[in-house]
Amino acid sequence: MRSVMVLVVLALVGCATPVIDYQAGTSFGDYSRASLAMTSGEQETARSLDMARVEQALRKYLPAQGVQIVDDDAQLQVVSRFVEYSRFDSNELFWGFGATRSNVGVAVSTPVSSEESKQYRLEIELVDIASKQVVWKARSAGAMDEDYSTAARDKWIDRAVQKMLAEYPPAP
After folding, report:
1. Mean per-residue pLDDT for 97-125?
2. CATH code assigned at 131
3. What does pTM read for this prediction?
4. CA angle, corner 29, sides to 69 and 63, nearest 5?
5. Range 118-125 average pLDDT
């Protein structure tokens, strides 16, 4: 039974789509060159291996969307970052049923213990260099746990970037 539940959850997570926002009226066909600008800060510095994975995935998938990555004369700047948030998991829930000759009772207790875990969502923004305005933004549908292995991080980041960039350019 537990394996069935795990498969159902994995199937639902696999169907999730990234959250996309964009500036209405933008002619995305005019953009063909972009430069990469990873954000700096304490959180990203500590996660520099993950940011290198993001850059590798961007270099892999962005050209397929018609945007070449260049060092000079870019029209867009690609800004990526991980946003940290906490998730609380309840570990226990007890319920019971009892009956006597004249009374029937049901009891449910609230979660006895909970556990906090940190997760990270990936955000990618495309900024028009001339106007310095964000014209397109994507946030990953799923989140990466802080305790993922190296292989799991590689796979998660590659898949997240691929899904997000599949939504670029937005349909008119």
Report:
1. 74
2. 3.30.160.670
3. 0.74
4. 30
5. 95
